[in-house]
Write a structure and sequence with these properties.
The chain is an alpha+beta fold. It has two helices and six strands, in the order H-E-E-E-E-E-E-H.
């Protein structure tokens, strides 16, 4: 059961890796996949911008404290977070009547590609290790220690054993 699930996840991960590689080469810019608004009039959108997958949250609110919080953010590996407070021009006679707060998280293509590439690499290494193991059928992985001839499970030929010349 687990082997089947692992192989399925490795296949899906390989397809995702290839899709990201195609996006990287095609380099679409400013593509929105989805956008929606919640009950608090906060707008969300998901899309591609500057070779990164982005999730953005935009909210309009009346400021309660002055001065406004400065821009903040961080970057870790391929993940970028940014929070900005923007004051629209001429929003009020004696100061801004409202501010626009933007929170953005972006994930670089290379980071997503690296994460999606882990399972296919593990699947390939697992298959190679099984084929290189002593006394194991190269076709089905059946243990051949108790079989003097070919594989009784699938009929595959026994792997060639290397003879040690030195003791």
């Amino acid at each position: 059961m687990w082997k089947w699930l692992f192989n399925l996840l490795a296949l899906l991960s390989t397809l995702a890796f290839l899709a990201i590689a195609i996006l990287w080469v095609a380099n679409p810019n400013d593509v929105k996949f989805a956008s929606w608004c919640d009950d608090d009039d906060v707008v969300y959108w998901i899309g591609i911008h500057d070779r990164m997958f982005q999730l953005e949250q935009i909210g309009i609110e009346v400021p309660t404290t002055w001065p406004l919080s400065p821009e903040s953010g961080w970057t870790l590996l391929g993940i970028h977070y940014r929070h900005e407070t923007e004051i629209p021009p001429m929003s009020g006679k004696f100061g801004p009547a409202h501010v626009v707060k933007v929170s953005r998280i972006a994930i670089s293509y290379w980071f997503v590609a690296a994460i999606c590439g882990i399972l296919p690499v593990l699947a390939i290494v697992r298959k190679w290790r099984r084929k290189l193991a002593d006394n194991v059928c190269g076709s089905c992985g059946y243990d051949l220690r108790g079989s003097p001839s070919d594989c009784p499970e699938c009929g595959g030929k026994r792997p060639i054993q290397l003879v040690k010349l030195c003791p």
